[in-house]
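Lab notebook, page 48
Experiment: co-folding of the full assembly
Goal: obtain a model of how the components sit together before planning crosslinking
Operator: M.T.
Materials (sequences as entered):
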Amino acid sequence: MRRPRPGAGSRVMRCGVVSFPGSLDDADTVHALTDVLGFEGVPLWHKDRDLHGVDWILLPGGFSYGDYLRSGALARFAPVMDTVIEFARSGGLVMGLCNGFQVLCEAGLLPGALVRNRSMMFVCDAVHLRVERNDTPFTGACEPGERLVLPIKHGEGCYVADDATLRRIEENGQVVVRYVDANGETTDAANPNGSLNNIAGVVNDAGNVFGMMPHAEHACEGLSGLRDGAKFFRSVDSWLKNGGRA
Amino acid sequence: MSYEPVDEQTALAHGLTKEEFAELCRGIGRVPNLVELGIASVMWSEHCSYKSSRAVLRDLPTEGPQVLQGPGENAGAVAIGDGLAAVFKIESHNHPSYIEPYQGAATGVGGIMRDVFTMGARPIANMNSLRFGSFDHPRTRYLVSGVVAGIGGYGNCVGVPTVGGEIYFDRGYNGNILVNAFTLGIVREDGIFRAEASGVGNPVLYVGSKTGRDGIHGASLLASSEFDDETEEKRPTVQVGDPFTEKLLIEACLELMEKDAIVAIQDMGAAGLTSSSVEMADRGQVGIRIDLDRVPKREARITPYEIMLSESQERMLIVARAGSEHVVQEVFQKWDLDAAVIGEVTDDRMLRVLAEGEEVVAMPIDPLANGAPVYERHFAPPAKLADQQRLSLGDVPPPGDYDRTLKQLLGSPNIASRRWVYQQYDQFVGGNTMVRPGSDAAVVRVKGTNKALAMSVDCNSRYCQLDPYVGAMTAVVESARNVVCAGAEPIGVTDCLNFGNPEKPEIMWQFREAIKGIRDACGALGLPVVSGNVSFYNETDGRAIPPTPTIAMVGLIEDVRHQCTQWFENDGDLVVLLGRTREELGGTEYLATIHGIEKGTPPWMDLAVEKAVQRVCLRAIREDLLVSAHDVSEGGLAVALAECCISGPGKPLGAEIDLEASIRPDAWLFGESQSRILVSLRSKQLTRLRELAADNEVPLSVLGTVRGSRLRAGRLIDADVQELRDLWSNALGDLMEGH
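Observation: model returned without errors.
Model output:
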């Protein structure tokens, strides 16, 4: 993983938030970053390859390119994605939420894919999650096994992967968050979309690219009683400021 | 294409009467050609001209110190302080949604959002009001799933949260469902845009999607006539929505509005290019010339007639400042959308349309916009009304098992949790949602302020069927009560008036009575109606829907720290009822569901009492006395109590309630007496609440305590709250799956 630049500890971390045509949560994410979480949210335009020197990158939720063809399939070819992919390959931190997660899978930066919910319906709810690892840049502020409540809102959030990939990511500990019930159990009833092994979010092999379906950015201020999302951002902030340690 | 004068038969086929056709010829000074007839027929349709309702609607109160824009624009606007305004409107899309539920509902949502962002406001919340037939009708499940998916499919994809609404099932809607969509937006007071063309020589720009053949005659033939056996054939008049383009259009328009480049802007909604150009020219007392060769088109051989009548979605008409065309085009290019100069503002007060160099339309604006006859339709109460209102409580046997009755009600289509519906809507996008669907009113904060807006949409059409005057009053005060329960002061109303065929005297009577009810209730509560929509001809094979004057209420929370939700939160809190329970059961869900009786008169309504109850509740919330506040409505006190126990996000809580013995127990438990609010509070706050109630002469009774895990009411009800929650939460989903 790429180490943050020296002296990062005293600086406000800058997070690039990519706007594709049809991105919806981009402005909300910039608001949460800048007005609530102590980052500087930097809007990045899909036609612009310049990352404007940001410290990390977030691909937000929405329906990029209308989710026509397949969710995330067209966004992956946007000019900005060339530099995002390059940034990720060189160890930079990249987080994708919902549609952002779908784009990262389509871009080959994360294993697996996201398909139609098994109910065949869009689902919006506040769900329980269990944090499987707290030694990633994205979950350092969580306790191991901690249970969080976050909103989900998606029609294509069913995580799938072929058997070999699924085995590999489970063995490597790449599954970072799972859907659980109020008691922390990975029951079928607690699985809102039919994801394999109740998987809600994964990291790549190197650990610097993270995607999940739940919306951390909409759970930072306590609106609707939801505030656990802030932990993911605090984790990134600490990681960057501590020179690459959780 | 011939531009010869049309004959009377052609005019009749366009939905005009003989007299209207003669009037049209007089108005424009000659016999119109086919394109002109098409334009006139949509402008004079009931949907666009309000010819049957206009005279009656004048009675509604539309003014107030907070009103920045009343009816007559794309949407109403109300000042909320901090230099900001709330812009909102509700609109129907009933007939398209019956014919093609997904696209009909989706484009209804798209249309109402355009009405709001056209005013310069960023949409921050959607709601909807839906009516379907009974579950034993073969089409109901198909329509419900299509409409809900369509609303979600569109709203979710444009990034505006759907935060509330209502849905009812009644066989009176078997052949004609209702889909009413509401949007609320926020704008700076000095940033409100209007649709008033001005500046002779200013360019007229067409922006957004290309024009195709969809939706032709939606306004005239689909929205302004009854349904019959041939309705299915009208499917091509339903438009097709593209929410992705709408999202780009929102961003492009709002970005453009910051640039001082445009004079006026209007959505191409019903009757598309025709109504947008005619209405903008009319408001500005100018003329307009359009060259159809420059309109972006989806199909090569589309005719002038089709272009003028197309209701293709996601299009807007803009009057720009001369010399600013490039500013408009740059912004739309950034968002990959079409923007074409298609004409200009003229001084001759004419609509002139060119195609292939030929002037195919030359009609004066005034008769098109204002020349439609205003009808004073005949009215008379329905013959069956007296019989429907007759109800003797002596003939209604009290239930043998009250537990069972409560459970039947909680699992019934009109009372069960709406979770199955609202789970399909994005409730969070925008990042402002403070109270999600499932409480009396939804609450969204106003970013950058300490304020929030509460909103609710309501109508009990069974009450309106039995007495449209009282029913409509009740719709207004109940929606006000709902936002008060959230801690908001009601500030404005938008209405969606859904009725049958206005040419029938009993329908016109219902309409007039309902308007009187809205007028009186708004008058008593000091509320302006700032926007709205009339939907007539909601009939199939001659059977009209129950009168459904849907009311959407917007309320202002001055300080987000003082707000309230409907569910109990603490073991040991007191449960208190504000208001009086009368011995009345007419028109209740209990009578309909348990006894199969839909008769009687709706609950008693005293506007002075209602106002006092709302005042006490709002005051108590602002003084932080209350933990929860819940409007008592369908299903009465028992259902309201159960909802307080089970509807919260945490574990369900029980309650122990004393039963007042002075009236029949089923009326006490399941009656729907109005002007009642069920609250919970710490016992130490009771003294102050009693003072407030006494000062306002509001009856207050301490009913019991939040306690344990069972809901107990006297000796009649004793039920496990987890069981009640499971039943209530899953009932609608089970019904949809056919269980």
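Interpretation: Chain A is about 20% helix and 25% strand.
Next step: discuss with group before ordering constructs.
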